[in-house]
Amino acid sequence: MSDEAKSWISSWSVQIFFVLMAVVVFYFMTAGFIWGFFNEYGSVSLRDSVFAPAAQITKRSMWYAEYTDWQKLWWLKNIPR
């Protein structure tokens, strides 16, 4: 690896960016797991506190990924072109 690339990767701003991205990804993964677990087993206190917003986003994106009946997705057919 060249010295230029090493200096770019070792800069503080780049390292902070990667750490923040790792924290965000870990937060969303944990939130989705906790939301599903507590939804299944009935406890809502932890589920509805810190993890609720990220878990809702995770749950919604998983629903879109699993939803395959394209005829019912009327908004997909009616996108203005």
Describe this structure in words.
The chain has 81 residues and is mainly α. The protein has one domain. Helices cover 69% and strands 0% of the residues. It has four helices and no strands. The longest helix is centred in the first third of the chain and has 30 residues, at 12-41. It is flat, with a radius of gyration of 19 Å. The mean pLDDT is 67.
Short summary:
The chain crosses the membrane at residues 12-38. Helices cover 69% and strands 0% of the residues. It has helices at 3-9, 12-41, 52-66, 74-77.
Major beta sheet summary: none
Helix content: 55-70%
List the domain count as a whole number: 1
Order of helices and strands: HHHH
Average pLDDT level: 67
The computed structural class is mainly alpha
Percent in strands: under 5%
Q: What integer value in Å does the Rg equal?
A: 19 Å
Globular, elongated, flat, extended or rod-shaped: what is the shape? flat
Secondary structure tally: strands: 0
Which parts are unreliable, with pLDDT below 50 for 5 consecutive residues or more?
none
Q: Which SSEs are present, and which pair or pack?
A:
Elements (H helix, E strand, L loop, with lengths): L2 H7 L2 H30 L10 H15 L7 H4 L4
Helix pairs in contact: 2-3
Keywords: Membrane, Transmembrane, Transmembrane helix
